[in-house]
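Sanity check

After download, print the first record. It should look like this:
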Amino acid sequence: MAWVFASTPTMQPDLRHTRRVLTRRYGILIAALLLVFALGVYGQVSRARWALQRWQVQQLAATAAAELPLLHHEHDEMGRRDVPAWLREQAQGALDVREAPGDPELSIRWFDDQMRELKRRGDFRPAGATTPLASARQRGQWLPLANGVAFWRPVVAQAPGGAASRLQGYVSVAMASSASEAELARLRKGLLIGALLAGLVGFAGSQWMVAASLEPIRRQIDRLIRFTADASHELRHPLTAIRAVIGTLRHGELLQACPPAMARKLQQIDQSTVRMGRLVEDLLLLSRSDRAIDESSGLRAIPLEDLVEDLIDLHQAEAEAGGQQLRASLLGNARVSVHPERLVRLLENLLANALRFSPPGGTVTVGMVPLRDRVRLWVDDEGPGIPPAQRAHVFERFWQADDARSSPDHHGLGLSIAQAIALAHNGRLQVEEAPGGGCRMVLELPRLR
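Expected structure tokens:
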């Protein structure tokens, strides 16, 4: 009874799974925080950079507007007939729109009130219009460009003595956005590299924090497992002594001399001791499986069909005593590498559950079909079944469904032990709905070639 499993469902794998889940969630949280931080930083810097560029364009427009009266004066001087030729050529050179190459990131243009271009500075070629429609020229405005930003400004001279203002001309300033875009590209690259480094540090930190948080829980579970194993082991001896005393009384003359009421009490004590002994053995088995003590010896390659047929023959009498039918539906044979005693324990638990919950006259079916790389074995009953919402709990220790599938003589460890044995053999045990409406327990094991 005191078997030891390899690769059984231990408490540690549960903690490792919890650690992975918590680490993943911490990682997602850290990534989300970094993303929000990076987007916030990038948004603020981007807005500040574009605001600075607009401010620079407006300042250049104001400076250019202040130069417009001087340009008008030079233009008027050039038009006078009494101006010497050498001075007219000098003024013409100052007003020549095709002047020497200037700033490749900037373009400034001056116009008179008739939209004649007086002067141009800079070699920037805007991708878009830098002059508005005629109906909108009398107000300052921003003009959209694909490769920069442009500002249009009318220049109005204040006449002395309170006279009406007079339009002197217009100024158009355009500035390339390549410098800002290059800075923002460097910022994006820096944020990406920083986010990756911070993510790695955050992942390592979350691993450390989760491990530190789960360490007290792991120690507590280890103590609980040791306590369960020690308590189960120590309880076996007094239970064995009680059964030995009752057996001595039953086979001696003292039990015949006891009153009938006393004999019934001793019989109840014996039955309770048997049930408690089974519970202690199951607890000892599960506590040892929780320790995950490795025992790779004892594996044997056996034909699964032969083992199932022997098990069905063994339980035929039990099924007939309950007015039930036990039949097999074995669709082929396959060899598996198992601990035979443990696999028998697993199948006996499944058969015991099926016979217990099937009504008199019902049928319990054991089926098997070999697949390509595994063997699928199932046990169907005709009982009340298990609702889908409760199927996730059937392998929990001490868990029992409603009154239709519970019994005071069973403590809810059979399926937990069966699951432990299945996992010990790299298999899988799950619950489904049987074709007849009852419960189907499905076992899958690796198949030997």
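If your output differs, re-run the checksum step. Summary of this record's structure: The two ends are 30 Å apart (CA to CA).
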